[in-house]
Amino acid sequence: MEDYLQGCRAALQESRPIHVVLGNEACDLDSMVSALALAFYLAKTTEAEEVFVPVLNIKRSELPLRGDNVFFLQKTHIPESLLIFRDEIDLHALQQAGQLTLILVDHHVLPKSDAALEEAVAEALDHRPIDQKHCPPCHVSVELVGSCATLVAERILQRAPEILDRQTAALLHGAIILDCVNMDLKIGKATLKDNQYVEKLEALFPDLPNRNDIFDSLQKAKFDVSGLTTEQMLRKDQKTISRQGTKVAISAIYMDLEAFLQRSGLIADLHAFCQAHSYDALVAMTIFFNTYNEPVRQLAVFCPHAALRVTVCGVLERSHSPSLKLTPAPSIHPNLQAYLQGNTQVSRKKLLPLLQEALSAYFDSTNIPSGQPETEGVSREQVGKELDRAGNSLIPGLSQDEEEPPLPPTPMNSLVDECPLDQGLPKFSAEVIFEKCSQISLSESTTASRSKK
Predict the structure, then answer these.
(1) Other CB atoms closer than 10 Å to residue 213's CB: what's the count?
(2) In angstroms, how far is CA 213 from the centroid of its own chain?
(3) Mean per-residue pLDDT of the chain
(4) 422 in helix, strand or coil?
(5) Pair 146, 127: CB distance under 8 Å
(6) From CA 171, how far away is CA 175, in angstroms rounded?
(7) 21 membership: H or E segment, kind and range
(8) What are φ and ψ of residue 259, in 5° steps?
(9) Please, are residues 154 and 127 in contact by the beta-carbon 8 Å criterion?
(10) What does R_g of the chain's alpha carbons equal in angstroms?
(11) pTM strictly above 0.85
């Protein structure tokens, strides 16, 4: 694999037709490995002197946000310098020159920004339900398995098993195990085929890492934010909502809130982050397990706009459907309100409608033009009537900001426009895995307490 990747980078210097194997925009571990392994297979099995190059569908500067990808590349001895990222190759220029052929892997629909590339797509290999409305006019191979790397492993082992080396096998093995949550029956993501190809890889290469070891290390790397700047932590797993030009960012932070608030220069970093991306408010939900392996969630609301901050905090505090059971925590700055969240089952996904409701209440309660900071103090009583009137009904039609976020949430699927990701077998984000583990933990605790009785 390493020798092949060195040749790919050299091939980019030549002016010749090129086949690009393109992963999805999230560039999670499954997408990255699938692109590398499928391009490797095509290069090794094509007789004509055609060039097949894997391209990671993110900027090189964004790779550090994907801790599990970085860790796994190091683990499998693949230098990051050999990889080709989306900002290092001009696909649109190649397309205009008639020198581009695209193979999509771990997605099969291009986003609007790449619509001009659709006629260059020759094949797509994916593991999510086919989107008939936006499907490209080419051969699309779709099978609902837990990991797209399973389908790549199947193609290699069925058609050219002799090309499979240990390094490529290790890549596929780890990606399948992580994506299928260590083949856990309780989670239920792994299919029969996923299990079958993990076992085949282990039979061919008995020295592959133990499943538990590789899963635990990848999970730890995915949640590790110790080497990230504050901005990188906020962008790593972020969503955005907006109303009438007012934008609120919601970031999942995988560490204890107290440790997050103690970061050097945090308030200045939060101000800079909001200003750089035109956010009026930022909500950070911290997620981690305590020493008793119990799930913990905490919230921090940062907002220089007094009226908006009071409204958002009021809606969250008063919510009964769902009830967050918030307890105010010591704050380090007047523009920041911190909370301990008693109800750990309320995930960020469930928080989004409440924040949309808060934006509605904010515009109902004030005539302040959106985007204009308010410096005068605003009491909670001033917006209390509007919050009561808004109640706890959830606002339908919740949507992402009109513009594509600067960075797709790390572990999610291809964030193509209008792609029905809510159908069929979903991929699990870090937060979803947290929720599943949380539910299992709570279930086991309940069972244990009943048995004691």
Answers:
(1) 10
(2) 23
(3) 84
(4) coil
(5) yes
(6) 6
(7) strand 18-22
(8) -65, -40
(9) no
(10) 24
(11) no
